[in-house]
Design brief:
- The protein has 259 residues and is an alpha+beta fold.
- It is built from 4 helices and 17 strands.
- The chain has a 6-stranded antiparallel β-sheet with strand order 1-14-13-15-11-12, with helices on one face.
- It is globular and about 45 Å long.
């Protein structure tokens, strides 16, 4: 048993993602304030803490290469994290393996494949031009293959939160958040369990990434997602606490759009 899972179908394209990667360096708005400004009029399904950061306060730098709506926040590629996540303006999410060097980007001449490690300046220029939002994290599963091993990954057992992009036999895409709220795993054991579970029920894993828990273990489901006992599913941190939310360095949100 892994814990909770929240399944979001992308079949209709009505479910979209939004990522707030950092505070607004121009206005000084912290992430929670940016989220509060954006939220009115939108049907939010869930919001969660996302990538890692260097410390406890909102101005702290996100770990790894990070771009917030075209604004470059951190240019440094973290060598121990292979997952590059692009949250598109249209609400989609793309995950690539940085070490593969095969990221596809759109240009005026068509699509082009670049290596982010060697073409970082070109990639960041593309992000700025296209108002892209990007963050880096641990890539746990990619193209149905485990990317973490029993002996080459963090051996600490902890509560884990994973975002998984999966595909059923009909080709329908699902974004699934796994949350082991009451059980501790290593990165390897939870990745192995998630891959085995999804494969056993006919799903292939496009990618699975690790989301931060730690002191920012925030998960709020706006009253729409409940556990098996009918209680609101939320993170181990007090998700309603303004003190906790004001220290969040990033927020991943999913919301529903009506066409």
């Amino acid at each position: 048993e892994i814990g909770y899972s929240i399944w979001l179908s992308r079949k209709s394209q009505n479910v979209k993602a939004k990522y707030f990667a950092h505070k607004d360096v121009r206005s000084g708005q912290i992430v929670q304030e940016k989220y509060d400004t954006w939220r009115p009029g939108r049907s939010v399904i869930l919001m969660s803490s996302g990538a890692y950061a260097s410390g406890w306060k909102a101005p702290d730098t996100p770990t790894g290469i990070t771009v917030d709506n075209g604004m470059v926040v951190n240019r440094t590629i973290e060598p121990d994290m292979d997952g590059l996540v692009i949250v598109e303006a249209v609400g989609g999410v793309r995950v690539s393996n940085i070490k593969d060097g095969d990221l596809s980007i759109s240009t005026d001449q068509g699509y082009k494949t670049i290596n982010v490690l060697t073409d970082k300046i070109e990639f960041l220029a593309w992000c700025e031009k296209n108002k892209a939002t990007v963050f880096q994290t641990h890539l746990l599963i990619y193209k149905d293959v485990l990317k973490v091993g029993r002996y080459n990954s963090d051996s600490d057992q902890s509560v884990r939160k994973l975002l998984v992009l999966a595909k059923d036999r009909a080709g329908n895409i699902f974004h699934i958040m796994y949350y082991s709220k009451f059980k501790a795993f290593t990165l390897y054991t939870i990745s192995e369990s998630v891959l085995g579970h999804l494969n056993s029920i006919g799903y292939s894993v496009i990618a699975a990434i690790n989301l931060d828990t730690g002191g920012y273990d925030v998960l709020s489901t706006a009253g729409s997602v409940k556990d098996c006992e009918g209680n609101l599913l939320k993170g181990n941190s007090n998700h309603s606490s303004e003190d906790v939310r004001k220290t969040m360095t990033n927020i991943l949100a999913y919301y529903y759009t009506y066409k």
